[in-house]
Amino acid sequence: MTSPLLDVAGVAISPDHYIGGRRVASAASFALQSPIDQRLLGHVGEASAGEVDAAIRAAQAAFPAWAGLSAAERQPMLNRFADEIGKRADDFCVVESNDAGVLLSRMRHGVVPRAMLNIRWFAEHALTLQDRTITTEQATHHVRHDPAGVVAIITPWNAPLMLATWKIGPALAAGNTVILKAPEWAPLTSSLLADCADAAGLPPGVFNLLQGTGANTGAALVSDPRLARISFTGSVPTAKWIAQAAGANLVPCSLELGGKSPFIVLEDADLDNAAATGALMYRNAGQVCLAGTRFLVHEKIVDRYVDALRGYVGQLKVGDPRDEATEVGPIVHPRQVERVMGFINRAVVGGAQLLWGGKPHPFGAQYVEPTMLANLNQTDEIVQNEVFGPVLTLQTFADDDEAITLANGTDFGLGGVCYGETAHATEVAGQVRTGFIWVNSFGIRDLAAPFGGIKRSGIGREGGDWSFEFFCDVKDVVVPAKPFRASFSHR
Ligand code: NAD
């Protein structure tokens, strides 16, 4: 028996799992509210250990045939999957906006096109996977990238569609079968993805979806020794838990985690450009892992820079994410609002100065004003911890060395932004210890480029060949250059 479909702004969505090509209902469920106005969107299934087992069996059963296809045979099916996402673009936009509070304009112009590209691009690039050879005097090494097996994909709520497709694309293109565990605070576009996989005719069991909380469904999934890989994006505490569970079974995992990235403004920066980009850090209400949230500004220009930034922030339109003009929407969940306000209040009690914001925003219960805190020490909680809300910090520096020391002075190492004369900013950026950093820009993401963090921001890289390295078993098939005759003197 399947559950009745939910109706979210006119879009019909299954609250069930998708296992082996069929919708499967659970006995247990959880309630889902919209972050915009707290209205009940419906109840979504919570997969039990039995349903996790069924998903793993389905993915295992589908694996030999899917892995046995060539990348060229998989490509048209994956392109159809991307086409189906495109056909339902409006549904994805409306649903993720209602469910996760993501801006409708961002969904339409950024996320949905990117989700389709995530599938298409990796399907295309998988065509070259088996073409790699290393030729030496002794031998030709045919370096094969064989599919690893059943892959568990676990995504967070802040960018569910983008992050799911960014992982599903390379995992499927490489010949793995997938189990996606959707984020419980924003699970609905993952269900639409299952509809698209079904409509595209992906063989049953190639793509499976489990709904459920991290503590129950997620934990049961990542503890299973039948998995070949776990690809996780989320918070540091969850990653530690998953790494231990995966470690117990020696299942390799890729961990894309939080950030506390520096936004450096050097003395020779174009202040107006740096300020316009600075205001972007409030996008998605600051619920963006790669945002530069620690502003480090040269002391000689700090007053002028803060004035310019204040001007841009003052123009931001806070409101309903379904309104195309809105630039800052809600925070995903009441618990996250509490967490964000807790960080602000503790910082202020500890002596931080509020340059702007600091209060709940009158637009709605899950809105917080774009906030900037100054008068801080490097060891302060607000400087060291990821807030994941519309909260930025400001510190000053006297020279490049101090900027670099402050930039590197947290446990995180995801990304960064550096504004200044290009050669100067590039030099400083090179010394910031993160997985990536944007010079005089922000948010440029090419699928071929590596993405990921160092220190507590993660283990592993995604994007381009790095995704395939993770999702494949690399095997060297060695063919000798000259006839080989066994002898004890052979190396
Ligand atoms: P989270 O760690 O609470 O949850 C992420 C996912 O893990 C959810 O699907 C959740 O159900 C699941 N989960 C929770 N406990 C689990 C367990 N024991 N076993 C298996 N799965 C479990 O993170 P969140 O609050 O949803 O997301 C916000 C975090 O994600 C932030 O720290 C943010 O920086 C990070 N993030 C990182 C990137 C990146 O690419 N580096 C991108 C987006 C978000």
Descriptive account of the structure:
- By secondary structure, the protein is an alpha/beta fold.
- The chain has 2 domains: 6-257 and 457-477, Aldehyde Dehydrogenase, Chain A, domain 1; 261-439, 3-Layer(aba) Sandwich (Aldehyde Dehydrogenase, Chain A, domain 2), CATH 3.40.309.
- It contains 15 helices and 24 strands.
- The chain has helices spanning 49-68, 71-87, 89-100, 104-125, 160-173, 188-199, 214-222, 236-249, 271-279, 302-314, 334-349, 381-384, 400-407, 422-430, 464-471; strands at 6-8, 11-13, 17-19, 22-24, 29-33, 40-45, 132-135, 139-147, 150-154, 177-181, 207-210, 229-233, 253-256, 261-265, 292-298, 353-356, 371-374, 391-397, 412-413, 417-419, 438-439, 454-455, 458-459, 472-480.
- A 7-stranded mixed sheet has the order 16-17-18-15-14-20-21, with helices on both faces. Strands 11-10-9-12-13-23 form a 6-stranded mixed sheet, sandwiched between helices. A 3-stranded antiparallel sheet has the order 7-8-24.
- It is globular and about 75 Å long.
- It starts with 5 loop residues before the first strand and ends in an 11-residue tail after the last strand.
- The relative contact order is 0.13.
- The mean pLDDT is 97.
- The chain binds nicotinamide-adenine-dinucleotide.
- Nicotinamide-adenine-dinucleotide (NAD) binds at residues 154-159, 181, 183-184, 213-215, 218-219, 222, 233-235, 238, 241-242, 256-259, 289, 386, 388, 414, 453, 458.
